[in-house]
Amino acid sequence: MSDTATPTVIRREDYAPPAFLIDTVDLEFDLVPERTIVKSTLAVRRNPDANHATHLELMGEQLEFISATIDGQPWEQVRAHDHGLTVENVPDTFTLTLTGACDPAANTTLSGLYVSSGNFFTQCEAEGFRRITWFLDRPDVMSTYTVTLRADKISYPVLLSNGNLIAEGDLPDGRHYAKWEDPFRKPSYLFALVAGKLVALEERIQSGSGKEKLLQVWVEPHDLDKTRHAMDSLIHSIRWDEARFGLELDLDRFMIVAVSDFNMGAMENKGLNIFNTKYVLANPETATDVDFANIEAVVGHEYFHNWTGNRVTCRDWFQLSLKEGLTVFRDQEFSAAMSGGDENEAARATKRIEDVRVLRQMQFAEDAGPMAHPVRPESYVEINNFYTMTVYEKGSEVVRMYQTLFGRDGFRKGMDLYFQRHDGQAVTCDDFRRAMADANGRDLAQFERWYSQAGTPRVSVTTHYDAAAKRYSVTLSQGYANSSPAARETQKGPLLIPFAIGLIGPDGQDLPLKLEGESAFGATTRVLEVTETQQTFTFVDVAAKPLPSLLRNFSAPVIVEYDYGNDELAFLLAHDSDPFNRWEAGQRLATRELLALAARASAGQPLEANDALVQAFSRVLTDPSLSPSFRELALMLPSETYLAEQMAESDPAAVHAARQFVRKRLATALKAEWLAAYQANLTPGVYEPTPEAAGHRGLKNLALSYLSELDDPADAVRLATAQYDAANNMTDRAAALSALMNASAATGAGYAKKALEDFYARFEQEPLVIDKWFSLQATQRGTSQRPVIETVRALMRHPAFNLKNPNRARSLIFSFCAANPAQFHAADGSGYAFWAEQVIALDAINPQVAARLARNLELWRRFTPTLRDAMRAALEQVAARVKSRDVREIVEKALA
Ligand code: B3K
Ligand code: ZN
Q1: Is residue 775 part of a domain?
Q2: Which whole number is the average pLDDT over 212-237?
Q3: Domain Peptidase M1 alanyl aminopeptidase C-terminal: where (predicted)?
Q4: What pTM value is reported for the model?
Q5: Range of the structural domain that residue 820 is part of
């Protein structure tokens, strides 16, 4: 966050082990909002595996130095500077005691120790611990921690830190203390403390081996009625990790704490996870089905980090995907299991589809821009900028490929070996790959390229059927798509791609498969291991010309190119036994149609209807053998953002026109079917956040949203008004409000005004719901009379708006800039001017949040010329004004 002219680039190749190690850390906090005193006693020794250093260089930021002693004696040879503290001429082994002060009340960055709603919280990953006290703040320095917290008892009745509570009691002057001890060695980024007026939902359970565990979900008192789902999610996570990976909770106590000011989703601090309220608090009135599912996923994610991240951590931050990719994979598998059991492929597919949608829209876009980097980056300026879709989501796909190659059992063997070798250590992505390779007796040298090469791989497929010889050959060629120069530099050779394939016969059934050289038919889905730039696989004894089902279940994070005809896609949509590819066929069909229409819109030509898509969608909508949740996903058109990315030159207005045209066409042609689907998927009675009930609500509300597109939306308005008034849950209420807003935008009628007012009045006391209220308005469709930017600017002045609260900033500013492309990319540049103002304002408050927003313009070179020029001007304006290392790295890379 420093204000340097030439930012320092940190490189992976420069890694060197720390010159000193710190075995134990004893921290004492006197918690006062404006001046907290921190006394830190460290057992330091020279690292036998490192080069000799005369001085101990500790990191520290925004700290006031008070005193230093070594082995109890004042040490004068200390130099405090902007980036830390140099302790000069130190002995080989010594006890260092440092006293300093920080100002949590003034800390708006939400990194380090800060105050939110009058309570104290910490966030240390990646480099926040150095804002609390001086330290070797790097993940390969692991220590055991003892923490004493002292604070006013009335203002801060609850005092929490990592591990086990070993002492507590009263102090003079109305103060009290608590002492915590974490028995496990950990890096400083996993340290946490919480102090304040909080209450907990508690539950005691027995872990797999019969040990008693105390589970707590801590929140502000008025939120206690919204903690049950988080607790249930935690218990499910514990059980799933025991069953699937044999991993047990290692502490006697596990705590989750919710905080409303938080930069991201949640943080896996050892035994004391700190969460954004958005990923903890839920009851039927305030949270949607999507919120319930997200809470389950994030609670799982943070809990799973206890083994993948905490027990085995990262040697350096270049290895971030070691813990994040692996833990995302684990949370995806957990959510899939929760939505249908570990074995039900059709139910698991809906989760897979949702994850792949995110990957393709967000990670593939990252690959195509100036921030493209490998899963294991080679360099960074600000590490917080590298908590990316590539590290997380592509990283998860890389981990998933081991499981695709070795099966669930082989993957488990690799995990077991990984923990056997590395428990308690700080290791690398190579160590993980070696464990997978050794446990399965495989050479995975080529697989390393998935970690070191940036860009989205592309696999082009051609097929040939020889009817006389009954041979079907599939030729796969690999390369990269859309690579930026930075990504191209990393691309050294072909990848090992597990490419799952099936062949579908003319009757729609899977054919049994026999590859050339095999003596018998095998399974109907085969994972081909592609290792060369071009490779041909030949299936023999193929009775009739098949249709290939390619990359089943999205077995690798690649783009597949194959020239399917529209009728072939419709056939796959109707028959493929692989649910992912059934969905994929519909998306290909829709994308093709939408891009053709967008090209016409871009060229100012009239849009014409095509019935192929309507017929295919009609069959899906009315097919009772398909689950409602699958139908919902299949009938959702690709997003405007995704579509714009597929154009040679992104034209958001044209994409919007094309997509609206198709939505209206689908609404009109299938009106009776949508009305029938609406009625057939009502979920009367008590709200339940189960996958089945959520699936019904999802399809019903999708029907409502299509109906709101009709020229005469009277039916939609009638249904939505009744649904809004009668709703006993937020999913239905928010969907009804959104349908009314849609109908209002389309017709100019004021259907939504009253409902919006009612929504605000009803939920004024629920910040997470008010976030939805802001976000619904920021993402609404504009009208010619009132572009959305005007609404957004008016909402910035609303008394409930607060730029310092990241959730609120995201609900209004990010929603508009990132989730309303047609309005944000207005031809007059008004969206970009707004974006620049907000990035500059946030830069001074919270660089991490500002840097996220700054990324919104990074694909500027891919837009139409007018937009491109306006975007560059906005980027230049920001580059000239911002100070933080975080934002500067983003805008400078974008402009380079
Ligand atoms: N490990 C944290 C992310 C920390 C982000 C720091 N800027 C949450 C997670 O991935 O679980
Ligand atoms: Zn994580």
Answers
A1: yes
A2: 98
A3: 567-896
A4: 0.98
A5: 768-896
